[in-house]
């Protein structure tokens, strides 16, 4: 497997990372960290001198400035943990920034895979009608979250915890968040999931799972529910494969249910129950899945520091009918990420950032070096997290069409108004 290691070593990775290369990313990360430390030390002094002026972009941002009210010295800058990021595919994404008051916030969108970002755009203040409030007759609110339902379309629901969509308003924008329209979502039934869409449940509660897998229609904003749902009710995870197959797995929100697994090869029209018949003791408490296509997938346990057992990996190549162990994976410990790329290779990364690659379905592994620590599937590719960014500044990410060549993405930081 030396050829595999050579193909994925640091030099090779640098040649495959586009604008900027790997070495420049390391230097930029260190430079950003130094600037951030200096900014924190001088922040109060600088902010106290500011009057009404432009919104300041912090290190890592390339979005145009937008006039806003003068920042307050008592208000800190957005941190990476404040910002929610979602990519629809490898081109269209949205970064969301919370406001100081309840339900307030802004968003910035990209259409070129994070090379450039729009100005900050305010979104509607969304009430949380399921929460209690100290003021009678006045609904509380929650942190809003806009979902990309199409390249130009964003939907914001009243609350993701309501079992009935008709219980509260929602908002839709067809121009990437410039203008919003309030509407009342309807629930409609569909035969299959549109190409390029990864379905989801509206929330993680059991009532949402029973309501069924669905997605927001990008034209009407209605909630579309699959006519035929996966067998069982304990699912917690949806995985989209490279051939458009859909896998669902889980053992209930609290892990107390029986592990279940199902796959659809026709975009949700029909489902096959693929719950393993093999005796895999960790499935019920910690089973997770990653899939290459409708035939090849891998089962593995989520990291559990209380379990000293070696890492365990099972593979299917017949669509989940049978699952066979991959003994070579038992040499690893503290595994936190497992994913496949478009070439069918299997990646494993541990808590200490060590990475391993298998080109033969988990029979053998080679140590590799890559800018990406972990990755998940998105429409048309993968979204990855960097391995070399300081913990205080982890907002950068990567996008890839194939899981081999990665495009770095910098999410802009802003000074709160």
From TrEMBL:
<protein>
    <recommendedName>
        <fullName>BNR/Asp-box repeat-containing protein</fullName>
    </recommendedName>
</protein>
<keyword id="KW-0812">Transmembrane</keyword>
<keyword id="KW-0472">Membrane</keyword>
<feature type="transmembrane region" description="Helical">
    <location>
        <begin position="39"/>
        <end position="58"/>
    </location>
</feature>
<keyword id="KW-1133">Transmembrane helix</keyword>
């Amino acid at each position: 497997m030396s050829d595999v290691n050579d193909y994925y070593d640091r030099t090779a990775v640098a040649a495959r990372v586009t604008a900027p290369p790997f070495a420049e990313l390391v230097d930029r990360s260190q430079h950003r960290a130094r600037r951030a430390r200096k900014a924190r030390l001088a922040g109060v002094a600088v902010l106290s001198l500011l009057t009404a002026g432009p919104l300041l972009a912090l290190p890592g941002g390339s979005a145009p400035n937008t006039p806003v009210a003068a920042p307050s010295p008592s208000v800190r800058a957005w941190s990476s943990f404040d910002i929610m990021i979602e990519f629809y595919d490898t081109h269209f994404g949205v970064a969301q920034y919370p406001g100081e008051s309840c339900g307030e916030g802004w968003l910035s969108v990209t259409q070129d895979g994070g090379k450039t970002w729009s100005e900050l755009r305010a979104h509607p203040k969304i009430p949380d009608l399921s929460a209690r409030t100290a003021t009678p007759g006045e609904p509380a609110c929650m942190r809003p979250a806009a979902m990309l339902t199409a390249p130009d379309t964003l939907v914001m629901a009243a609350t993701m915890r309501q079992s009935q969509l008709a219980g509260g308003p929602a908002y839709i924008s067809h121009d990437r968040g410039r203008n919003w329209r309030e509407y009342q979502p309807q629930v409609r039934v569909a035969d299959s999931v549109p190409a390029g869409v990864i379905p989801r449940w509206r929330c993680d509660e059991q009532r949402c799972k029973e309501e069924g897998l669905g997605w927001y229609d990008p034209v009407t904003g209605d909630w579309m529910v699959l006519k035929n749902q996966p067998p069982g009710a304990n699912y917690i995870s949806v995985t989209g494969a490279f051939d458009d197959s859909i896998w669902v797995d889980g053992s209930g929100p609290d892990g107390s249910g029986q592990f279940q697994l199902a796959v659809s090869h026709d975009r949700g029209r029909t489902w096959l129950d693929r719950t393993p018949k093999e005796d895999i003791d960790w499935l019920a408490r910690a089973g997770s899945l990653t899939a290459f296509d409708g035939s090849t997938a891998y089962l593995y346990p989520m990291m559990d520091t209380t379990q000293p057992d070696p890492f365990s990996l099972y593979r299917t190549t017949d669509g989940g009918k049978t699952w066979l162990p991959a003994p070579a994976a038992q040499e690893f410990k503290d595994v936190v990420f497992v994913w496949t790329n478009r070439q069918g290779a299997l990646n494993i990364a541990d808590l200490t950032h060590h990475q391993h690659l298998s080109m033969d379905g988990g029979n053998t592994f080679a140590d590799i070096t890559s800018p990406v620590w972990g990755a998940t599937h998105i429409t048309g590719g993968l979204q990855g997290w960097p391995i070399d960014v300081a913990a205080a500044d982890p907002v950068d990410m990567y996008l890839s069409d194939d899981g081999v060549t990665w495009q770095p993405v910098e999410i802009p930081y802003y000074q709160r108004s």
